[in-house]
Amino acid sequence: MTNSQNSFTPNPYLEKIAEHLAEEHAAYTAREAMPSAGRFKEAQTELLTTVKDVGRHGDLSTIMSVEKAILKNELRLYGNSEGMKSSLGAALQDLNQTEKHHIIVQDKKRYATVDELFQRPKNRRGGLPYDEARQFFNAHKTRLLNQDRSRLSETEKKTINARRSNIRVAEQAYIALQQKALGIETKKDQSRNRGMSR
Amino acid sequence: MIEYTEEELARFAPNNEILGKLQDARAAGDTEAESQFFCQLVLPAVSLLMMKENLGPEYIKARGLNTSEAERVFGMDWLERDNDELAKLLHS
């Protein structure tokens, strides 16, 4: 080996890592170049379209059922670490709890009890109980936002974003139900009532 | 994540066969052949930039890698140019 070659002999570990990183990405491009990769993308795009439709047209129950289906599927397909399993497990548990709240919030008498129990300022948001359903909506939005930082395709990230926006829609629907249960007039109600009395 | 166009992916298509040979050579313990097949890979520009950044431009030249993608994406003079400047071209 000549001196000039010696001058750029790299750290052997760094050399191996660099080559393996390059090999991994070359393998990714090879896989992406196959027709089945196109089918995979198409399937992901269709999923994205429907998740968006759920947010546009779906009611609270539908949004929750859809999110539950996605989470359960994710847990079974990709729950390959304790951290991921416990995070998805917690999300599912909170979601089940939210579904119970959805039933109770539609019953004025039963929701009055919840209202009574959530009186401390830290347990209220905008004058309404910050109950487990409301807590779930917030925690789940954060959970989905954190997933945005992981190694996913553009379409997959858009799907996560659409799920996040669906949770926001569900949250607003739930808040409206809370207001109705507690007999709180919204601005919309007030203007409607004024219009009627004229 | 970099998303490649169909046209770009067509350029990477040979990698499937080359990787098959490379990984067979590795399994057989033939490091010489493994190294040669690595040089045949159509390495994406992002990977070539990573190698240049970590191992230096002289290494890239001496190793005899297939640098066609870096030349296409960055230009023929990519080995002389600043790495951070080149990185900006990846997402444009």
Count of discrete structural domains of chain B: 2
The structural class of chain B is mainly alpha
- State mean pLDDT of chain B (0 to 100 scale): 95
Secondary structure tally: strands of chain B: 0
- Span between N and C termini of chain B? 13 Å
Nearest-integer average pLDDT of chain A? 91
Distance between the termini of chain A: 98 Å
Task: Summarize the structure in words.
The complex is a heterodimer of chains A (198) and B (92). Chain A has 198 residues and is mainly α. Chain A has one domain. Chain A is 78% helix and 2% strand. Chain A has helices at residues 3-6, 12-32, 35-57, 60-78, 82-104, 108-117, 132-147, 154-181, 187-197; strands spanning 124-125, 128-129. A two-stranded antiparallel ribbon of chain A has the order 1-2. In chain A, α4 runs antiparallel to α5 (82-104). Chain B folds into two domains: 1-40; 43-92, no CATH class. The longest helix of chain B is centred in the first third of the chain and has 13 residues, at 15-27. Chain B has helices at 6-12, 15-27, 31-40, 45-55, 57-63, 68-74, 83-90. In chain B, α4 (45-55) crosses α5 (57-63), α4 crosses α6 and α4 runs antiparallel to α7 (83-90). By secondary structure, chain B is an all-alpha fold. Chain B contains seven helices and no strands. The model of chain B has no long low-confidence stretch (mean pLDDT 95). Chain A binds chain B through residues 5, 7-8, 10, 14-15, 17-19, 21-23, 25-27, 29-34, 37, 151-154, and chain B through 1, 3-4, 9-10, 12-13, 15-16, 19, 22, 38, 41-44, 46-48, 50-51, 54-56, 58-59, 62.
